[in-house]
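Hello again, I could really use a second opinion on something today. I've dropped the whole record in just underneath, so have a look.
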Amino acid sequence: MNPHSKVIPFHLNPLGFIEAFTSHGADEAALLSGAGLDASLFRQPRAKISYAQQTELINTGIQLCNKPGIGLLVGMAFDWTYFGTVGGVVWCSPTMREAGDAFSRYVMIAQPYYAMYPRAPQGYVDENGKFIYALRLFPPGAQSAAVTMFEAEFRLASTLRVWDACGNKSVADPSVTVRLAYPEPPYVALYRQLPCTSVEFGCEQSSIAAHVTFFTKPFRTYRRSAFEQLIRRCEQELSETQLEPTVTAKVRWHVYAHFNEPVTVDEVGDILHMTPRSLTRRLAQERTTFRQIVHDVRMEITAHHLQASKLSVEDVSELMGFSSASSLRRAIRNWTGDTPSRLRAPKRTLARTPVRTQGRSRKRKTRT
């Protein structure tokens, strides 16, 4: 994707950054000028800007605010309005899993750059029923170190806000822990204000973790109707952007999103406004089948658990619905040509600095 192509809707993320930066002291005129933008954009509901301009907008905002941890401050203040329709999903999803899947899929409407990355496993269930979600960043590019750190902290703060809004706090263990793959910064006090239980620095990778029930147990069941209406609207908006070039890509997303509660070709066809026969025909034209996609997604998630988690092969086989560990081993060998033991990634132990956040106890009252 050309970084100078104007593809980002100005009234979504860019306007959110402008609001957040100006609330922290940035001058609006200087902010716009530094990014090569004009105030007339405020009066153009269909205006779009490029990634190069958005990067300059963020870089200018960082310089004008000149505050330590500005990525955290902006991430905590960024209004869901600036994510468009998918922002409304945050307030009506029945579970954190559904909110996360919807947000991951439809955020490309506000940030088309995400369309360049096909759906892949980002989380896994580990020992003691913990769900580990890896915080991923865009590949390093020409952006400055300040913009790279802004992205990391903005992504952390905004993700934690989704977890705090959509996680089920009535479960036995509602704690949310954060591990970060960078040293403790001088402004560590800001990290204590994040909506999580604890933060550790100097870890092998950046991740957020909570018990799987916090992530999957429904608790806002009255909102499901509104949630499903918003999802249909998001799907329509995504279709209008023409960001997904193939039907296969669309089907993969929905199979991933409903993997724990498998969907049928009829159900996916209904989501995509296609008859099962039409969907099957379109997939055949792309040289695949619905069954093949389901199999590939299952194997991708299985391989990810084997590589990332500490679960035994037996535990992974039960989690992924295999009849036995030997059945999983055969499936992995047929799919990768390798054995589960050889897929295992080596684990490293790093010195960690724990930070206990304020205002969050282990037991929390349910909020809706």
The longest strand covers residues 130-134.
